[in-house]
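Recall from the previous chapter that SMILES is a line notation for molecules. Here it describes zinc ion.
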Amino acid sequence: MIIDVNKLKQQGKTEESFTFEFVPARQLLDLPEASIEGCVRVNAYVRLSGKDLYSEGEAVFTVKGECSRCLEAAAVEVTVPFEAQFSLLSGADYPIKAGLADLTPAVEEAIITGSPMVIYCKDDCKGFCPNCGVNLNKSKCNCKN
Ligand SMILES: [Zn+2]
Ligand SMILES: [Zn+2]
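With both inputs in hand, we obtain:
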């Protein structure tokens, strides 16, 4: 999502809230066998502060993959907050180039660092019995402990 900083200024605005969606072009999850299902929905807020543009918001998306406990299919909705300061200064992490600020890399960075390391098919997934390997969601075993 590209923010036209000059246009904001021309319209006399100092802040704006909006939503957008995008499909990540690369793998953002540090989770084996998992991927983002469909698009990432972003609720964003931007504010001009001096020559900089401050942005914050949240990204909401569905992670689909294997349950980290029982390896059955799992899908969970994840919300990741993000925050970024866009600057005209060269060498800035998030630059404003030709009056434009691209929010997508900042959102992607937040997803990379803020996504869960594990997902579960359900909150109370019992996983496997460490002794006999039975999937305890599906059947009981006779092991003690
Ligand atoms: Zn499970
Ligand atoms: Zn067992």
